[in-house]
Amino acid sequence: MKEKTIARLIVGFLVLSGMFSVSYLSDQNKPDINATKPTVFLHGYKGTYNSFGFMLDRFENKYNWGSKALIYNVSANGEIVARHLGQGNSKPEFIQVILEDNRAGFTKSAAWLASVLKHLKRYYDVNTINLVGHSMGGIVSFEFLKQYTDKGLYPEVDKFVAIGSPFDGIYSEEYFQFNYGPAATDLMPNSSALDMLHERSFPDSVSVLNIGSTGDSVAVPESVGALRQMIPANQFEEVIIDDKNLGHSALHENQRVDRLIYSFLWKDNS
Q: Is-annotated flag, keyword Thylakoid (predicted)?
């Protein structure tokens, strides 16, 4: 048992070599995530633990849809800390990814997400996942899907949900008077980072749900809807909620959004 534990730790460190490193707060009661198809949640620009923390608490404790198994924290220099939260069960497992540098651009953020998922595959033997991203987290997840396609290194993505993601950029000029950094530059309409989203084909095995709101002044419906131009129609579903009071950050605190995610990801499998 001791030799097996040591071997797993060695593998975990080898996976993320170079600019990335991995550490663990605990290796006791490691959840058997491979027994499920886990869903990975990634926050957006300036996001924190709370960006998905309350939603995942509802999923686990209010709706009983599954349990949060892992939190991956990625430091500004790319160091990854994986924190185990549960022992696993037969229900869907939730995995939250938190980037310390939450103003980093699309490319760097997608590379960090790729390193987390690479570790998830190698250390936990996870071969298939779902991805959920809010705001820029949806764009970063989309970039991961188009750039990191080696199924030998990364889990295969079955379903992808984007929530309030401005795929055509943020149209409000006032927004950029108060927000800055590489990510803000990438989120400007007609940026080179947004143009790159149109390059490469989208994986034909991934089903997509795109969620927006008429009350979102950051990711307005027109910008959210730009995603439909980049994904084949037979893989794509979009819901724009007609609610002028449902703002950008409120999207991940809304029970209708909760239900849309549940229906798309798990209802057919329950």
A: no
What is the dihedral sign for C-alpha 230, 170, 246, 270?
positive
How far is C-alpha 257 from the chain's CA centre? 16
The rounded distance, in Å, linking the Cα atoms of 3 and 166 is: 48
pLDDT at 104 (0 to 100):
98
Place of tokens 């590489």: 182
How far is the C-alpha of 27 from the C-alpha of 230, rounded, in Å?
41
Please give the model's pTM, rounded to 2 decimal places: 0.88
Non-local (6+) Cβ contacts of 124 within 8 A are 30, 33, 34
Q: Give residue-wise pLDDT tens across range 2-31.
A: 443 443 443 344 333 333 445 444 444 566
69-92: average pLDDT: 84
Greatest Cα pair distance, the chain, in angstroms, is 58
CA atoms within 13 A on the CB side of 151: 8
Sheet holding 21-24, edge to edge: 21-24, 79-84, 67-74, 93-99, 39-42, 128-134, 156-163, 207-213, 236-241
What single-letter amino acid sits at 143?
E
Average of pLDDT values for 49-63?
Answer: 96
Dihedral sign computed on CA atoms, order 209, 213, 214, 217: negative
Closest C-alpha among 182, 165, 143 to residue 248: 165
Q: Is the pLDDT of residue 214 over 50?
A: yes
Q: How far is CA 34 from CA 31, 123, 228, 251, 270, in A?
A: 9, 10, 32, 30, 18
Domains of the chain plus CATH, in order, are: 2-269 (3.40.50.1820)
Interval 101-146: pLDDT, tens: 999 999 999 999 999 999 999 999 999 999 999 999 999 999 999 9
Residue 60 backbone zone (phi > 0: left; psi -120 to 50: alpha; other: beta): alpha
